[in-house]
Amino acid sequence: MGSKYPKSLRIFLPLWVLMLEIAFILVFFFFASYETISKKSEFLKTYHAFQDINVMAVLGLGFLKASLRRYTWSSVAFNLFNLALGVQWAIILDGFLFSSSGKITVNIQRIILGAMSAMSVLISSGATLGKVNLIQLIVMTLLEVTAFLGTKNVSWVELQGNEHQSMMQIHLFGACFGVTTAWCLPGRRLNAAKEKERGTTTSSLFTTLGTLFLWVFWPTFNSALLEYPSEKETAVYNTYYALTVSAVVAMSFSAATHSHGKISMTHVHRATLAAGVAVGVATNLIHSPWIAMVLGLLAGMISIAGAKYLLVMVQQVIGIRLDAHGRSCLKPQCECICSVPFRAGFQILYSAGSLCLFMAMGLVGGMLTGLILSLNLWKAPHEGKYFDDQVFWEVSPSMNLT
Amino acid sequence: MRFKFPFVAICLQLSMIILFGLFVGYENKWQYYAIPYESWVFFISLLWDIGNIHVMTFLGFGFLMTFLKKYGFSSVGINLLIAALGLQWGTLIRGILHHRQKFYIGIKNMINADFSTATVLISFGAVLGKISPVQMLIMTTLEIPVFAANEYLVGEILKATDIGASMTIHAFGAYFGLAVAGVLYRPGLRRRRHDNEKSVYHSDLFAMIGTLFLWMFWPSFNSAVADTGDHQYRAIVNTYFSLAACVLTAFAFSSLVEQRGKLDMVHIQNATLAGGVAVGTCADMAIQPYGAMVIGSIAGIVSVLGFKFLTPIFAIKLRIHDTCGIHNLHGLPAVVGSIASIVAVALGVADKTTMAKQAAALGTSLGMAIVGGLLTGLILKIPIWGQPPDQNCYDDSVYWEVQYTCFVHLKARILSKSCAVM
């Protein structure tokens, strides 16, 4: 057993990061160029989505993870770091995997795709929150983005999915990946860190801030990759109405399942977003608002039930913390398949196939990544120092961390 | 609370889904491939607006009300709850009122639904901390029909202009909320200032997040339903200048009326937004930037003075206790705004409306708000909705699972130890 003091990352971290960044710059220097925009409207069409998705990734997912009372700085800042790294890597991979010329042409659509792929890492880092250092996060980002883009490519070629459908599997993929990674990390039964895992009212309000950002911009996320305006429009409406229903349902069911009828803020954080995930794949195929609303209702209910009963059990057995998406998305994804036949019965097999593919790849990829991360190379923080900002940040002694 | 609140909320939600199934469909005018460039721009700009307005309703209004030290969860959470319900109910009521049969919604309907939600959130500010979530749900269901009727009257029958909805949203919401608060007045809460009705350092900072989001996106709010082109452009510019001027006068007067020239955070959180409210009615008229700045400055001054002098009078003499001071942020500036629109008509910069129409619009908005608010207040006063007793007001732990930090346990342990020693 090593020393209880965290190992210094002074040389190790800057070396890794600088080397990576120099490599990225070299690749961009030799292979990347800007696309010349033919029409101004092309730019206008996508810029709006680009902005909203960045707000979701940086502010939304960042603050969503700020729920641990001694880990808020790392949650928000490491999230930004992951995104910055993930986007660059995703653009490089995407350029080489999906273009024949061997050149990367950078346009807004490609950056949106990159940011959305990097969001898979931001989702799964919720499961490993507080247990890994920056170097492990770098490794995890590189591996996960590669795995996600590879899976997406396979699902295109084999299952004829389109961009939108495969991107909407990101929640499932990220959740599976994160859960298995966290499962492989040391320290599954944490007792010393229990105290630090609790939230406070302030950190809970910060999480609410993140939730609301995600809530408000989710329709853009669900509609960004659709091609035709009428599809986009339908997707936006369906997502909005499903989200409104799940917000109401989340609160009422949270109160109904508590012994004194009190609402739990953690349930609100998770279940209000469940509907956005649930309508994701089929959102352009639903042609009446009430169907989307029923989906939202079911998603909210299942999410609360899952958070309340199922996951307490899972948590006790396996001893891992699950991320919001992990909690809310596994079940609603199943509903997605059920909702597809409303318009396109024959697609159900493909959907089921791609669902299984993403889930399996997530689980296997997460397992491998977890094993790599638990090697002794990365100067990982000691178990007793989990969930603590002090390991990574300069904290002035006068600052009251509670 | 355990059964009453989920029962009411789920019943409302189920009836909403059934009504949507019966009455609402999507309009999809555009064919899949060829659509003209102009429609694209129009659609995208509306999509942008609706995102901004959602940020205002959910983040802006929600966090603006988190200033109470123990009431942050309820402010944001109940705000989300009633906004989510209000969006659906607002879409439905407005559609039925205008079409009277099955109707098809587009993106404009969603913006209008957002507006009806904003009205309820404004009224929520007056009763914040004093009523239960069930009462809040009832109030939402009752307020939105009255709002829609008033909006229909002002827009379709009187044909007054109210582009940023100073009168139909802000004045209506504020006076409705005040009327409800007046009926629900509880002397026990005023005898001495309630312990929890205070802010702490970080809760004021959270409220400031709300203020800043509202401030940034207010131009979208005032210009969302304006005609594209000149009118929309003027609405954005006027709102922006009015807000900017309002910030300066709010700071100046806050320093002037407080002791030793210090600033009061309450004024900064609220009065800096009064300019956006006041310029609403004449936002799309050709009032020139200086006109907007004059309106904004006056609104800032009125709002700060209202907080300082009018709120205590309201609470003590008129027996209306207004938790967030919505009368000063929304009520008074909206009245200023409608007077400004009458002046603008008199100066001949408005082409669509007359002085009489504007005055009538103000009158109907106030009248309907107060009558509707009094009736709603009476319904809410029936003692079956689980209104919290006086000592539990302004406290999250009544409705929320709150994890207090370890201090509480520590304190308890120290107390028990010292008892043992004694």
Strand order in space, largest sheet of chain B: 1-2
User: What overall form of chain A do the CA principal axes indicate?
Assistant: globular
CATH structural class of chain A: Mainly Alpha
Give the overall silhouette of chain B. Answer: globular
What is the count of helical runs of chain B? 15
CATH homologous superfamily designation of chain A:
Ammonium transporter AmtB like domains
**Fraction of residues in β-strands of chain A:** under 5%
Amino- and carboxy-terminal Cα gap of chain B: 41 Å
User: Which topology of chain A does CATH recognise?
Assistant: Ammonium transporter fold
Which sheet architecture does the biggest sheet of chain B show?
Answer: 2 strands, parallel
The whole-number mean of residue pLDDT values of chain B reads 87
Largest interface, chains and sizes: A-B, 62 and 69 residues
Radius of gyration of chain B: 22 Å
Oligomer: heterodimer
Low-confidence stretches of chain B: 405-422
Description:
The complex is a heterodimer of chains A (402) and B (422). Chain A has 402 residues and is mainly α. Chain A has one domain: Ammonium transporter fold, CATH 1.10.3430.10. Helices cover 69% and strands 2% of the residues of chain A. Chain A has helices at residues 12-31, 40-64, 72-98, 108-124, 134-159, 163-167, 170-184, 194-197, 201-223, 229-257, 265-279, 289-318, 324-339, 348-373; strands at residues 32-34, 104-106, 263-264. In chain A, strands 1-2 form a two-stranded parallel sheet. Chain A is globular and about 60 Å long. Chain B has 422 residues and is mostly helical. Helices cover 71% and strands 2% of the residues of chain B. Chain B is built from 15 helices and three strands. Chain B has helices spanning 4-23, 37-64, 72-99, 107-127, 133-157, 166-183, 187-190, 201-223, 230-257, 265-271, 274-278, 288-316, 326-347, 355-381, 407-421; strands at 24-26, 103-105, 400-401. Chain B has a two-stranded parallel sheet with strand order 1-2. The radius of gyration of chain B is 22 Å and the shape is globular. Mean pLDDT of chain B is 87; it is low at 405-422. Chain B: It is found in: Membrane. Chain B: This is Ammonium transporter Rh type A. Chain B: One of its GO terms (molecular function) is leak channel activity.
